[in-house]
Structure formats: C-alpha cells, structure tokens
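Thread: Newbie trying to understand structure tokens

Hi all, I'm a second-year student working on a class project, and my supervisor (Dr. K.) asked me to get a predicted structure for one chain before our next meeting. I've only ever worked with sequences, so writing a 3D structure as a token string is new to me. If someone could post the tokens and maybe explain what I'm looking at, I'd be very grateful. Here's the chain:
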Amino acid sequence: MSAMAGKIAALRIFPLKSARGVEPAAVAFAAYGPVGDRSYSVVDPEGNPLKAKQYPAIAEITPVEVGFELPGGQGLCRAQAEREVAVIDPVLSKLLGTAARIVGVEPEEQTTSLTKVAPVHLVSSGNQEPRANVVVEWPPASGDSVAVPWDIGDRLRLGAEVEIELTSTPRHCAGIYGRVAVPGTARLGDTVQKI
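---
Reply by user tm_fold:
Sure, no problem. This is what the structure looks like when written as tokens:
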C-alpha cells in the first residue's frame, strides 16, 4: 500500500436507525449511500422518529433476517412497509414505554435528517467510532493510528468500483462524511485509494 492507500478493515450497516448494526463482507453503495443502511426507523403514532437518546432500549434492538429482535428475548418486531399504516407494535411499545412501531424509509428519504446526516461515514481503524459505515486501516504516519490522511473535497476509491467524495466532518464523533460519487460494491479487504 502507498502512503495514501489503505484497506477496508470493516464494513457496517445499521438497518434500524439508532439500533445495533451488522458487519457484512460486502456492501452495495447506491447514490443515497450504503444499501440497507438506516432503512428503518422507530416512530411514534404520528410518524415522528424516536431516538435512542430519549429511548435507550432502541440501541439494543438487533437486526435479524426476518425483522428486529428486541433485547432480553422480549420478542421480534417486523417493520411496516407503509408509513401511513399506523399499527402500533405492542411488544416494542412495552419495551420503550411509549406507543411505537418500526417503518421502512424510502431510499430517497435516507439522506434527509430523518435517517442520517451524511450518506457515508468513514473512520480509521485506530478510532473507536462504532457508528461508521467504513473502517479503513492505513499505514500510520508518525505512529498516528487515529487520524485519516484525507480532507474534505478529496475523492476515495473503495475497491474497483465505489467512489466517495468527502464532504464534511462530524460535530460529535470522529471520522469524515462523504457522498457516493460512483455507486458499486465494496468488500472487506478492498484497497482504499485517494484519487
């Protein structure tokens, strides 16, 4: 690897906003971000998002193949496809202590404030930011394993297909945000190269 190249150490998607994520071996990136990332949200009866900051139990919900597993073996929730169908999930509501349901978020909505600040969040492998989508291992300069060797405005290629344009830095966590400039699939171990 050159001084400006690294490799993907981890890929993460978080199907339910504010809940636990999964680390697949490959992630497809569409124009709106990683496919399946924050594609569901816990909402109240009026459709307003509920956040883990106010309802900490959301952070303990685990995505599984057929829905979302609640902590402590309290049950399984399935997402509602339509936002307009206001059927409250009684098990989820009991867990949170308020009326709630899980709804799907359309891909074009995934770049709004309902789901996320930026389509892609990248960090270096020396950083302990658990909510990032792409963790990059790169040869550290001067022993620094936390900083990233890229700046806002740079473009990165992930593997042979995906290109990410770096757009901003997070206010409350480490790393850098970007948007998908060229969609494709990135895989664990793929090279990350500044282009």
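A couple of things are worth pointing out once you decode it. The chain has a mean pLDDT of 83. Residues 5-33+113-194 form one domain. Feel free to ask follow-ups in this thread.
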